[in-house]
Structure formats: C-alpha cells, structure tokens
Amino acid sequence: MSVAKPLDEWKKEVGPAIKSKKEELHFMGYESVTDEEIWKCIVSRAKKRRDEEWMLHQVVNSVLTLSTQDFMNWLTVQAVTNDSWFPLDSKA
What we know:
- By secondary structure, this protein is mostly helical.
- It has five helices and two strands, in the order βααβααα.
- 58% of the residues lie in helices and 4% in strands.
- It is globular and about 45 Å long.
C-alpha cells in the first residue's frame, strides 16, 4: 500500500534511514552530525522540488542518496546564514 503525505510527516518512519546516513557520516569523520541536522538538510533540499506529497520510497531515497559533499555544503550555508554568531554576547 502506497500512501503519499507531506514530507514533515515521514520523519518518524524514515528514522532508520536517517540513522544509517548519520553512521555513514560519522564513519567519514564527521562525528558531530546529528539526526536533526540530516533531517533539516533533507527538508531544505526538498523545498527546491516543490512536491506537496511524498511517497515513503521518495523520502528514503532522498536520505540515502544525500552525499557527504551536499550535506557539508548545506551545513556551511547554514553556518554563514545563521544570525547567532555570537550567542554569548547576546546574554551580556
């Protein structure tokens, strides 16, 4: 049975694929990568596709085909565009 639903609703079901991708990135030396960062990267990349409804196999494919380079590019852009560069200064 195939069911299509919004991408945000698939996070729990694709948890094993995200865990596998996290282990792959850890093996490649990026040991600080979290499940949440991988999921945010997938969601960010999905916005470019403009698909409203996703099938389970599409989400799993997006997770498992995420390359290390694409993830690191996304992480770099997030670091540059994040406006909280000096979080300790805001508390002072």
